[in-house]
Design goal:
By secondary structure, the protein is α+β, with helices and mostly antiparallel strands. It contains 14 helices and 12 strands.
């Protein structure tokens, strides 16, 4: 079996985490061997989850985010099939999905009662069929993950990314003229992946239904473009790299997974989409009043020196649109650049207040926080964290805290104890772990 760990270490992953991924890849390879004896995988990829340090619901409106990849994610292996079928097996859940490869608009059939992740397999295969009609090669896929599901670390986008990268490689899409005319960098690929999920067009590559979420490309950008040991600042629509910031020496990120699922499927999808819908309504209000045709909220704000005040005056006091607009403006134009500047200057001790304002914006502007994540953020600060904030889609998920490495283990234990005492019903599902900014996706041809 390939030395996956060595390749991940070469990519910037720490040795202990790389060893854990080696075990996950071994499980995936074994599952693939059982499904069709004698055929070894020809492609493998590790796709990480991500932490959104700052930039809550800003990407699809053209805003900014401060991001890092985590050293947990999806380990996927794949080989081509002789027929036109994509068959994907999750070794952790034991579920399997089979869909027709490259059949636009077909949801496909499933070997068992369709698991929730079937929609992502169908969406990826269908979008590639629409955009790359010459590709017809199916695939056997097996994957294993140590990324907490529905925890705000974007396990769904990691799945979409790993599936698309694998199918593109097995069909040699990156060497074709259509791919090269539209996707010329990892940032381009990240933006394309965002449209695979939200269903929009990307350049000449036509969109379709997507998965029903109105998100952007922040998650995919972190997974494909972040760097080990660093924070990455990006703006979006289009994806633009702004700067790299070294992780402060002597600090570690501790993540608290609340145990409240931050789902983006079914009924939860509507709540997730509310923030995106509100941003779109603000932009439509502006364009109607001004006769402009700005395509993002950021473009509207930057259209004139008085644009922010003019736009805000157009919004009603009630209904939440003004609060949503205020949250976007402060997050994009004040909080993200301020924290980035402070960390770059070595003044990590000063980032607590602006990060607290970001958390308050999520609670009162986005209105997507639950009592569990609110308490986790407050408790982290009370226990001495330099900064702490919820992240991800909202309505559950996780909270990050920046703490001194020397006290991370003790802090994590006290944080866990405080949370489990307040919410004993989540004790079995909650997780607390330390992480360092990890590498972006690592592709391996076997």
């Amino acid at each position: 079996m390939s030395d996956f760990a060595a390749r991940l270490i070469d990519g910037g992953m720490t040795a202990g985490e790389a060893a854990a991924k080696q075990r996950l890849f071994a499980r995936a390879c074994a599952a693939l061997d059982r499904s069709r004896a004698g055929a070894s995988p020809t492609f493998a990829v590790f796709v990480p989850g991500r932490i959104e340090i700052l930039g809550k619901h800003t990407d699809y409106a053209g805003g900014r985010s401060l991001l890092c990849a985590v050293e947990r994610g999806i380990c996927l292996v794949a080989r081509p099939r002789p027929d036109g079928v994509v068959r994907a097996h999750d070794v952790v859940s034991g579920t399997t999905v089979s869909v027709p490869a490259f059949s636009p608009g077909k949801a496909g059939s499933h070997d068992t009662i369709a698991p929730s992740w079937a929609v992502y397999v169908s969406t990826v295969a269908g979008r590639l069929a629409r955009n790359f009609p010459d590709a017809r090669r199916g695939a056997d896929i097996a994957l294993a993950s140590d990324l907490p599901m529905a925890a705000g670390m974007s396990s769904s986008s990691a799945l979409v990314t790993s599936l698309l990268v694998a199918l593109a490689s097995l069909n040699d899409l990156p060497s074709g003229g259509v791919w090269r005319a539209n996707i010329t960098s990892r940032e381009d690929l990240a933006e394309y992946l965002g449209t695979v999920e939200n269903g929009q067009d990307f350049r000449a590559l036509a969109g379709d239904a997507g998965v029903g979420t109105f998100g952007g490309s922040e998650d995919h950008t972190a997974m494909l473009c972040c760097r080990a040991g660093e924070l990455s600042q990006y703006s979006f629509c289009p994806v633009r790299h702004e700067r790299q910031i070294r992780m402060p020496a002597g600090y570690e990120v501790v993540v608290a997974v609340s145990g409240v699922a931050a789902e983006k499927t079914g009924a939860a999808r509507d709540a997730y989409n509310d923030a995106s819908t509100a941003a779109r309504q603000v932009l439509e209000t502006w364009n109607r009043a001004t006769g402009r045709q700005d395509t993002t909220l950021r473009a509207a704000v930057e259209s004139g020196v008085d644009a922010t005040a003019r736009l805000r005056a157009l919004l009603p006091d009630s209904g939440g649109l003004r609060q949503r607009f205020d949250q976007f403006v402060e997050e994009t134009f004040v909080i993200v650049p301020t924290v980035g500047d402070l960390v770059s200057a070595g003044r990590v001790d000063l980032i607590g207040d602006p990060v607290d304002r970001s958390q308050a914006g999520a609670e009162h502007g986005l209105r997507n926080q639950v009592p569990e994540t609110i308490l986790l953020a407050q408790a982290a600060r009370q226990l001495g964290a330099t900064a702490a904030s919820a992240f991800g889609a909202g309505f559950g998920g996780s909270v990050w805290a920046l703490v001194a490495r020397s006290s991370a283990e003790e802090f994590s234990a006290r944080w866990s104890e405080r949370y489990r005492a307040a919410f004993p019903q989540h004790a079995d599902r909650a997780q607390f772990f330390a992480t360092t900014p990890g590498p972006a996706a690592v592709e391996m041809r076997l």
